[in-house]
Amino acid sequence: MKYSLNENVKSITKEDNILLYNPVKSSWIKTKQKNVDKLQRLINSDLKTLNKEDRYLLDYLERYDIISDLDNKTDIEADSPISIYFFLTKKCNLECSFCSMNSNPNIDSSNNLSFDEIKEFIDQLSDFNIKRIILTGGEPLLHDKLIKIIEYIKEKLGTKVIVSTNGFLLSEQFCKDIKGKVDRIDISWESIYGEYKEMRDQFIKNIDVAKKNKINMNFSYVVTKNNREYIYEYIDYCVLYDAGIDLKIVSPINNGNDYDDLILQEEDVLDLYESVFEYIIEKNYVNSPCLKSIIGYTPKPKLGCSGYYKNMFAIYPNGDVFPCHSVNSSEYSLTNIKENSFEDCVKLFGKKRNTFSVFNIDDREYCKECDIRNFCLGVCAGEIYKDIESGSIKPSTCKFRSIIVNYFLWEHKKNISFKEQLNNIILKIREAKSCVKL
Predict the structure, then answer these.
(1) Which residues are CB-neighbours of 77 under 8 A, at least 6 positions away?
(2) Tens-place pLDDT, residues 300-343
(3) Please, is 41 exposed, middle or buried when counting C-beta atoms within 10 Å of its C-beta (0-12, 13-18, 19+)?
(4) Coil, helix or strand at residue 374
(5) 391-418: per-residue pLDDT in tens?
(6) Mapping DSSP to helix (H, G, I), strand (E, B) and coil, where does residue 262 land?
(7) Using CA atoms, how far apart are residues 273 and 268, in angstroms rounded to an integer?
(8) Which residues lie below 8 Å from residue 387, measured CB to CB, with a gap of 6+?
(9) Integer Cα distance of 174 and 187 in angstroms
(10) Runs of H (alpha helix) within 64-171
(11) Which of 154, 167, 201, 340 is least surrounded by Cβ atoms within 10 Å, i.e. has the fewest?
């Protein structure tokens, strides 16, 4: 066997440190430059002459796909889809101004998949190792067969089921019906701080009902210029209900393109995260496990977002299949499950992958010169797929993402506390802001 540096490996250098990463296999290592020089000597050596330590090093590098057998070619295909986003309906009991699905109460559902067609699709998924199914919308609680769909998924697949809801239709009966069947419900909070603030009390009562029934909850919040002042109360509720936190910055996905006045600028984003991290420390929330995901980053290099791989597929109410839940124009449609099997859909994606350049980070005009692009992955493809040229514009979250990625790649230490992490990132944000002002 003769080794060589894997053909997919890239590198980033900082001072005397070097980071070797393989975006095809999502693996990476960090070491000193002198060790890379040693590596070059080792892979050109006769393996029989190497000592135990050197052999261990080569085995380690091969395990992380940094080096490989010269005859071993790496395939970028994923083994199987991991997640299914199932949009059961586009109809919603609300009509939020920046909804990416353009949902509202008056949408025609006559062409939606029937319950039998949904069951047939779920049957097809048994041939794949699906890790989770997210039932979403619109508002999925408006679907009259939602409980039966959940029960059928659990019966046939036994996989994790997540229901994404705006929370206004949660009831005692619904919570009892899903108990032990749904692994988590994801609840969006921003509506009670905007267009539907008069329904806030009822919303909180519904959350209380879910908590009483011991339903595992995750709270999401889309931050806009108009609702950022309420984010601290939202954090309080995450702690109160011991719910997972998912903080998002409003972006121009689909309907969001019409609401530029809601979108935060780069300095707004930095100010927001600085104040949020300070608030968590000030309120002594640093020991609340539910808040630790607020940083929301684990270094993992990739060629593009999930839409680039076969990791995720989105099924729309009428049966159309897309490689991403935020990209739904006809040119990105793979097939319709009324017409073709899901297996055929997965095969078709393999043939069409390279035509979907919007998912590939190396094809993003603004990102292509950035050395951390495979770790950051840039903005969501849903923000730019309708206007590819917008991929050449610096997104407002770019600076913050750069701070987070570089911190975890070069400075983060595994044994430090969450509070220390936040303090370190706050310092990095302040440094970035001071440079902007200069």
Answers:
(1) 310, 350
(2) 999 888 777 767 899 999 999 998 888 888 888 889 999 999 98
(3) exposed
(4) helix
(5) 556 788 899 999 999 999 999 988 999 9
(6) helix
(7) 9
(8) none
(9) 14
(10) 115-125, 146-156
(11) 201
Q: At 372, which amino acid appears?
A: I
- Describe the strand order of the beta sheet including 27-32 as a list of residue ranges: 10-14, 17-22, 27-32
CA torsion 289→221→93→138, rounded to 10°?
-90
202: helix, coil or strand?
helix
Amino acid at 64: Y
Phi, psi (rounded to 5 degrees) for 393: -95, 135
Q: Helix 342-352 crosses helix 115-125 at what angle (to 10 degrees)?
A: 70
Cα 337 from Cα 339, distance rounded (Å): 5
Q: Of 274, 317, 303, which is closest to residue 436 (Cα–Cα)?
A: 274
Token pair listed for 323: 């490689």
DSSP letters, 158-177, are --EEEEEE-STT--HHHHHH
Helix (H) or strand (E) holding 281: helix 266-282
- Tokens representing 178 are 């899903």
Global pTM value:
0.90
Give the burial class of 101: count Cβ atoms within 10 A of its Cβ; 0-12 exposed, 13-18 middle, 19 or more buried.
Answer: buried
Q: Are 219 and 241 in contact (CB under 8 A)?
A: yes
Q: Is it the case that residue 70 has pLDDT exceeding 80?
A: no
Match 């990416």 to its residue by tokens: 100
Q: Write the Ramachandran bin of 138: left for phi over 0, alpha for psi from -120 to 50, otherwise beta.
A: left
C-alpha–C-alpha distance, residues 268 and 270, integer Å: 5
DSSP annotation of 359 = G
Burial of 370: CB neighbours in 10 Å, binned 0-12, 13-18, 19+: middle
Q: Of the candidates 215, 203, 139, which has an alpha carbon nearest to the alpha carbon of residue 177?
A: 215
Contact residues for 430 (Cβ-Cβ < 8 A; gap 6+):
274
Using the Cα atoms of residue 104, residue 110, residue 112 and residue 117 in order, give the sign of their dihedral: positive
Encoded tokens for 28: 């990476």
Residue of 432, 362, 423 whose CA lies nearest to 400: 432
- Closest Cα to residue 147, out of 124, 179, 100, 169? 179
Residue 80: pLDDT band (50, 70, 90) is low
Q: How many residues does the chain have?
A: 438
The DSSP bridge pattern shows strands 67-69 and 3-5 to be: antiparallel
